Amino acid sequence: MELQLSTPALLFSAITLMMLAYTNRFLATASLIRGLHKNFLKNPDEGMIVGQISNLKLRLSMIKYMQLCGVLSFLLCVICMYLIFMEIQPAANYVFVSSMLALLISLGISLIEILISTKALNLEIKDMEGHLEKRSLGLDFWFKKDKKDE
């Protein structure tokens, strides 16, 4: 199969949208970390915060590698287009396959990061459910309760 110049160019819009989504994830995670930092400074002994810190560190690392593989895929697409333009077809084929592989790795890491982030959200929900159960059992007088909640 001979690659046309338009074949790797089709990936440009997909990779660009994917990078935008990854940037949004990074910004959301950075916002969570900043909020968690404020909560940590107020109450450094809270156990939930310690668990979230390791989770967010892992997610940040994964987002970094997702973006790295996405940029690599984009770069390889450009190189592939150059090789097609220069009529070096065998090398263009290998570079295009490499670009697709980098894109696949990026998407795989993205899937794992989504699973980790939903696990963290389920921990938050479980924590809230525990507080709701204590209140519904009439045991809330044992726990600190702000006047704002009443």
Automatic annotation (TrEMBL):
Q: Which residues cross the membrane?
A: 12-33, 65-85, 91-116
Q: What's this protein's name?
A: DUF2721 domain-containing protein
Question: What keywords does the record list, in alphabetical order?
Answer: Membrane, Transmembrane, Transmembrane helix
Organism this protein belongs to? Shivajiella indica
